[in-house]
From TrEMBL:
<protein>
    <recommendedName>
        <fullName>Cationic amino acid transporter C-terminal domain-containing protein</fullName>
    </recommendedName>
</protein>
<feature type="domain" description="Cationic amino acid transporter C-terminal">
    <location>
        <begin position="506"/>
        <end position="556"/>
    </location>
</feature>
<feature type="transmembrane region" description="Helical">
    <location>
        <begin position="337"/>
        <end position="362"/>
    </location>
</feature>
<dbReference type="Pfam" id="PF13906">
    <property type="entry name" value="AA_permease_C"/>
</dbReference>
<keyword id="KW-0812">Transmembrane</keyword>
<feature type="transmembrane region" description="Helical">
    <location>
        <begin position="88"/>
        <end position="110"/>
    </location>
</feature>
<feature type="transmembrane region" description="Helical">
    <location>
        <begin position="475"/>
        <end position="493"/>
    </location>
</feature>
<dbReference type="Pfam" id="PF13520">
    <property type="entry name" value="AA_permease_2"/>
</dbReference>
<feature type="transmembrane region" description="Helical">
    <location>
        <begin position="505"/>
        <end position="527"/>
    </location>
</feature>
<dbReference type="InterPro" id="IPR029485">
    <property type="entry name" value="CAT_C"/>
</dbReference>
<comment type="similarity">
    <text>Belongs to the amino acid-polyamine-organocation (APC) superfamily. Cationic amino acid transporter (CAT) (TC 2.A.3.3) family.</text>
</comment>
<feature type="transmembrane region" description="Helical">
    <location>
        <begin position="154"/>
        <end position="173"/>
    </location>
</feature>
<keyword id="KW-0472">Membrane</keyword>
<feature type="transmembrane region" description="Helical">
    <location>
        <begin position="122"/>
        <end position="142"/>
    </location>
</feature>
<feature type="transmembrane region" description="Helical">
    <location>
        <begin position="533"/>
        <end position="551"/>
    </location>
</feature>
<feature type="transmembrane region" description="Helical">
    <location>
        <begin position="446"/>
        <end position="469"/>
    </location>
</feature>
<feature type="transmembrane region" description="Helical">
    <location>
        <begin position="413"/>
        <end position="434"/>
    </location>
</feature>
Amino acid sequence: MERTHNSSFSSFKSYIHALSDTPNRLSRRACSVSTSVEETNRVRARSGPDMKRTLRWYDLICFGVGGMVGAGVFVTTGRASRLSAGPAVVVSYAIAGLCALLSAFCYTEFAVDMPVAGGAFSYIRVTFGEFLAFLTGANLIIDYVLSNAAVARGFTAYLGTALGLSTHTQLRFTIHGLPKGYNEMDVIAVVVVLLLTLVICYSTRESSLLNMVLTVLHILFIIFVIAVGFWKGEWNNFTKPENPKNEGGFFPFGVSGVFNGAAMVYLSYIGYDAVSTMAEEVRNPVKDIPIGVSGSVIIVTVLYCLMAASMSALLPYDMIDADAPFSGAFRDGTSSWRWVSNVIGVGASFGILTSLLVAMLGQARYMCVIGRSCVVPSWFARVHPSTSTPVNASAFLGIFTAAIALFTDLNILLNLVSIGTLFVFYMVANAVIYRRYVAIGTTNPWPTLSFLFCFSLTSVVFTLLWQFAPSGKPKAFMLGACVAIAIAVLQLFHFMVPQAQKPEFWGVPLMPWIPSISIFLNIFLLGSLDKPSYVRFGFFSGLTVLVYVLYSVHSSFDADEQGTLGQKSGESIMESVESEDHAQKV
């Protein structure tokens, strides 16, 4: 066997031959799946030294809280209250928090059973195969890099607010020869990204300690803002608008406004998924991961509800500045309270640092595990023997993020993550159902696939009706019919298709209800995104498919021929046989 890992790329002639064999290689590799046993042993060994298991449940809670509670929450609360829910934004946050918890359960089941650094990429690879895993993983990394670049530039803006400076004239400099949107150089953003890159390359443990300190400081600032809001606020603002012509009461926009507000604020909870990428570095995954992921979502939900209540007490909903609700309220008030606006800028700066740190940790671990699967160069998979961290992936993505943050003015709100992340959440919810009801090689997958298709289709129809159908009884009837059909399909699947396997340690309760609700919610949220999000997703997805066809499928085919990738789709039956051995290893 003289074939090397990169045999398809050893010469131009070899590559042309590989391209001519693309249909055969796609049929062999695109739907090939790994197993949890392979992912936690043989595939992980491709990184060389192991990552150190130094994290406990409290580290994961701080990572989760730090990743979710960024500066964007200050904006999201105002937009949801002013435009969608009014004072009932408190209920919107509670509903969104419950939805986030349901989605987090899906991640937790996979992370406990398969404690590797790949997160959603690994979960989809063991269920739906290599191509869909690469499509979702690549989109997720692109979202991480672009969002982190925007967040880093946001740090400069909030630092200017804290210092009372004009960020455009004093903390950035302009190069007039470049096009608008690419001409404001942000050196501070670059320095912040590179310093955090050094920290995450040096040690995950030290990264956790830094995150803990920054998260505690950020939470203290948030508690301060909440306390001042209640102290300065009035309870009448919960029911009385400033303008008598506007709708009053606690639910001025009705029940639909509460749910529209929940869709808007749900994106403030995104960040807990990065915690699942730390699973390989957790001492006791069975105990620590469920506590860390669920605990962080619950804590953040309480904080968000208190922030929303504080803001509602501070001002009537029709007086709230949708873009700067807290700082705007204090800045426009009496001079004795204007200093609070600067305090909010300081707190938001800490929030940006924590969310940036957690996201950069997550993106590096995604890239590391994608490298293990050989669909990108395996250089990214290497773990440094001294630091026990994925230094190559961390450094590459850190430098790439810093380069974009230097000159690109990305018009992405700090609390928003693009369509790719919601698509990954949707895929993970589907994957957890598929994994429970299908044992590859022994179970017919079509009943489960048919259910997932029908339920998703019903959710899409419901979302389209919600977004575009005119209000009235016909709309209510059609929405009710969609709900009835979805419940009927769900119940039919539940009673007719038995579970093929159950998790040994921790599993999503009320299967298949909870992941099905998560599927619906993610589709509903996808329907609330704007057209540019879909254009960006389509562009990057097309680019990802092109990379897979021109490079990734050939690289993984070579690795498979060399015998370094492990199992193919038909051999996943070994997983159930080796599950006891896996339990001992975890």
